[in-house]
Every structure is written in C-alpha cells, then in structure tokens.
Design a protein that fits this description.
Largest interface: A-B, 68 and 89 residues
Strand order of the largest sheet of chain A: 5-4-7-8-1-2-3-6
Oligomer: heterodimer
Number of helices of chain A: 6
Order of helices and strands of chain A: HHHHHHEEEEEEEE
Distance between the termini of chain A: 98 Å
Strand content of chain A: 15-25%
Number of helices of chain B: 10
Radius of gyration of chain B: 24 Å
Number of strands of chain B: 0
Structural class of chain B: mainly alpha
Order of helices and strands of chain B: HHHHHHHHHH
Radius of gyration of chain A: 32 Å
Number of strands of chain A: 8
Shape of chain B: globular
C-alpha cells in the first residue's frame, strides 16, 4: 500500500494541515527520506512567499522607537541612569574588542587580589597604616551585633573613605545605620546606610574634616535619615 | 517549529563558599562606591570610540550584522532595520491589516534580534528568511488572539508592474533581495486568482484547510487541491528561474 503523503506535503510546508493530517504527515516524514526531500523543496517555496507582499512603509519614527526600546536611557546624557556598575562592566566586556577585554580581565583580577588582601586585614585588631597607600580600619561587632564586621578604607591622603559592613541585621524602613566620626569625644555623622537581606552594606563617607583627623569610629541604629547625635544601640566600633 | 523561548541558567561557584562569597560581596560593594563610575566612563568611552572608528555598517553582510546586534551594537541593528524593516512591516501589515499593530510587530521582531541573536542559524536560513519567519508567526499569533475572521479585501499579493519593481541599489544582500522579490512576485502573478486566494489565507492568516473551506464556503477537497497546485506551480517556476540564473 502506498503510504506516502506527497499530496499533503505542500500544505504541511505552509503549516495549514488540520490536526489529524498533520499527525499523519509528521509520522511519515520521520521515516521517509524521499518525502523529507519533497518537504524541503516546498519549505523553500513557502519561505519566499513573504517577498510577494505589497510594499508598505512604517512610520518614519519607528526606527527611533526601536532604538529607544533597546537602549532605554542615553548613557551620555542621563546622569540618572540606574545601570549598576556590574551591568556596565558586563556590557563593556561584551562590547569591547579583545584588547579592552584583556584590560578588563586584568582589572578584575587586580581587584580580587586587592580585596583578598583587604579581607585578610579584617582579622587584625588594630588599624593598619602604611604611608602612601590606602589605610584600613577594622570595625568589630558589639554585644548587640557580635557577628558583624566592618572595614573603613581611607584614601592615602586621609581625606576620603568608604565603609563596608557585613553581618548586620536588616532594619525596618523606619530605621537606618549611622556612622559616627569621633574626635575628642565629639561625634559627627559620617552618613547613614542600610544593608541588604544578606547583611551587606556600604557607604561613601561624608566627612567635614579629613578622616585621618578622627580617632575612632562607631555605628549605631538610628531613625531613618539619621540623628544629630547617637541615640540607638551601637553595633560596630573601632578601638579608641 | 522553532522554539521561541529559552531560559538562561547561570551557574554559581561553590568552592569554599563562605570565604569566596564574603570576599566577593565586599569587593562588589567597595567597587560600587569607588570605581563604578570609572567603569561607566570606560563603557561610554568605548561607545564613542566605536563611533569614531567609523565602521561602515552598510558594507557588512547580514550575518555579521546579526552577530553584532547580539553584542548590543545599536548601529548594526539599525542597519538591519534599514535593510529589512520595510519587508517585515509589509508582511505584518498584510497579515494583521492594522498599521499600529504591524508597527508593534516590527518592533518586536527587531527587538528579538537584539535580545536573541544567538537563535539565528546561518546554516538553516538567510537572515531575511529568519526575519520573515518570526514576523509571520508573530503576526498570526496576534490574529489568533484577536479571534478575527479573514477579511479578503485586506490581504493579497503585490502587483507586478515594471514601475513598482523594488530598487536594486545598495549592498549585495539588498540587491539579491530585490531580485528575489521580483522573481517571486512574477511567479505568483501567474497563478489563477482562486489559487492566489487560498494561498494568501493559508500563508498570511495561518488558516488550515478546513478553516479556509469554511471561510470561503468551498468544498474542503477543492481547497486542498488549489493549495497543492499553487505550491507545485510556484516550485516549478521558482526552480526554473534559479536554474536559468
């Protein structure tokens, strides 16, 4: 019995067979090389039918809409772009030439090595000071947050710094952590911050004086936005 | 049928998780506050550099443009748009019959190129075929969601008149495309009207044999025969053209 489905193959190529016929042709094609070749020839015809549509032009602004869709914000003009540094880095790596890619890789390796070095300093109880290089100051958890650790990274000239913390409990929306810069018993706010669900947080320290002029640092829990002076529990501190 | 959805699986490192993850998190936070802006500037610089290099995307072939678009080269996507937006839009408009919907479909098609360029297989189809395949399926999806019935006056094949032949200016692909369009239009023009009609309903509207028979109030066997004869005749004419050229 001739079980070939040649008459139905043109319809199969156009995807216009009804369910039962579609199943029958599919089953036959799975085992018949001759009908597979027939199908390929009709698929080539079906692929070309789109070329015979009447011409029509889209709106002149459609290309602009497409460009805006694939690049929602213009990075050259928008300072508010919320692309993370990690997203920018990965995009850069994907876009860049091999030379840039290699340079980026070296940068990443260097950062990882330096971070591991900084991480090692956390175990040292005292401040580390090396002239001409970044200074790091370890912060240790109090009884309120015994698992918490922190690290102040101060620029070589002592002017600016960054705080990174780990192991702090996430707070409610009504509360934030506040950094205090201590000098002669006076406490000045260095900024407020929150931590992620994992307990990580960071802060670019805002200081009226060079950080090198302060003798100690502390972090307390305060109302969201911060307080003029410490009012809540102290969670992290550096040795006086 | 090509699968249009795929989920990316991103493996996570598992070695010495506490130390590695803590170190990485600290690194991430530190870099975020200190060098994030620097990296952003590098990215911007890279973009400007690309422009300054003066790459003439109009000289690149379609496959290269798709690859570059997949790497977020907007100019490459723009060049693809310039080459094929008219074809994509025309096909979408002929299918859905609605200018606004056809433009949305056109945007979706090129956005898909941008986001999923890796799905393109040059060993299986030309870029123009890949784009029209996406366009056709997307357009038919839109039609089916609407549940609309075919409007015979809204679909059809291009007239083949010497004054309306596509331009053959531009890069090699554009020239080849223009020649193909002329060839296919000429072949379809030779089909009897009743065959062109059923072919249009099957191709543009995604109707099955049975749906076409119901829509046109014609016997099912007649519809099947017309479609088969139309496809066979087109294959014969198009293959003859290819051999002669």
């Amino acid at each position: 019995m001739d079980t070939h489905v040649v008459d139905l193959i043109p319809g199969y190529a156009l995807d216009c067979l009804d369910g039962d016929e579609f199943v029958r042709v599919s089953e036959h094609l799975a085992v018949c090389v001759g009908c597979q070749a027939e199908l390929h020839s009709f698929e080539a015809v079906a692929d070309e039918l789109a070329l015979a549509v009447p011409d029509a032009d889209p709106s002149a602004d459609l290309k602009g809409r497409l460009m805006r869709r694939v690049e929602p914000a213009d990075p050259e003009t928008s300072s508010q772009t919320q692309i993370s540094w990690w997203g920018q880095l990965t995009r850069l790596m994907r876009r860049s030439t091999p030379t840039w890619g290699l340079a980026g890789l070296i940068l990443i390796v260097a950062l990882i090595v330096s971070n591991l070095w900084l991480w090692g300093q956390l175990s040292r109880p005292d401040a580390v000071t090396e002239p001409g290089f970044l200074q790091t100051i370890a912060l240790t958890g109090t009884q309120v947050a015994p698992q918490a650790t922190g690290l102040l990274v101060v620029s070589a000239d002592g002017e600016h710094g960054t705080l990174v913390v780990d192991g702090l409990a996430p707070l409610s929306e009504q509360q934030q952590y506040q950094l205090w810069l201590i000098q002669d018993g006076q406490r000045t706010s260095g900024g407020v911050f929150s931590v992620s669900d994992e307990g990580y947080g960071s802060l670019w320290i805002s200081s009226p004086e060079p950080l090198a002029t302060y003798s100690a640092f502390g972090i307390t829990i305060e109302p969201a936005g911060g307080s003029p002076g410490p009012t809540g529990d102290k969670v992290l501190g550096s040795p006086l | 049928m090509m699968s249009l959805s795929r989920t990316k699986i991103i493996p996570r490192g598992s070695a010495n998780p506490d130390v590695c993850l803590n170190a990485f998190a600290l690194l991430k936070n530190f870099v975020h506050n200190t060098v994030g802006g620097f990296i952003g500037q590098i990215a911007l610089h890279s973009t400007r550099e690309t422009v300054r290099r003066g790459v003439d995307y109009s000289k690149l072939n379609d496959e290269t443009l798709v690859r570059l678009a997949g790497r977020e080269h907007q100019d490459a996507l723009g060049e693809l748009y310039d080459r094929y937006s008219r074809l994509v839009f025309s096909l979408a408009l002929n299918t859905v019959g609605d200018h606004a919907a056809a433009e949305e479909i056109t945007l979706d098609v090129f956005t898909r190129v941008w986001e999923r360029a890796e799905l393109y297989r040059p060993d299986r189809a030309k870029v123009s075929t890949w784009l029209t395949s996406i366009t056709r399926h997307r357009s038919i999806d839109v039609l089916r969601r609407r549940g609309s019935r075919p409007e015979q006056h809204s679909i059809g094949w291009a007239e083949v008149l010497p004054d309306h032949l596509p331009s053959v200016d531009g890069p090699e692909e554009a020239t080849e495309l223009a020649i193909q369009r002329r060839r296919v239009r000429a072949a379809i023009a030779q089909l009897p009207p009743e065959q062109k009609q059923v072919l249009a309903l099957a191709y543009f509207k995604g109707y099955s044999h049975r749906e076409i028979a119901e829509a046109l109030d014609q016997p099912l066997g007649t519809v099947k025969t017309r479609i088969r004869l139309a496809m066979q005749k087109l294959r014969e004419m198009l293959m003859e053209e290819q051999i002669s050229t």
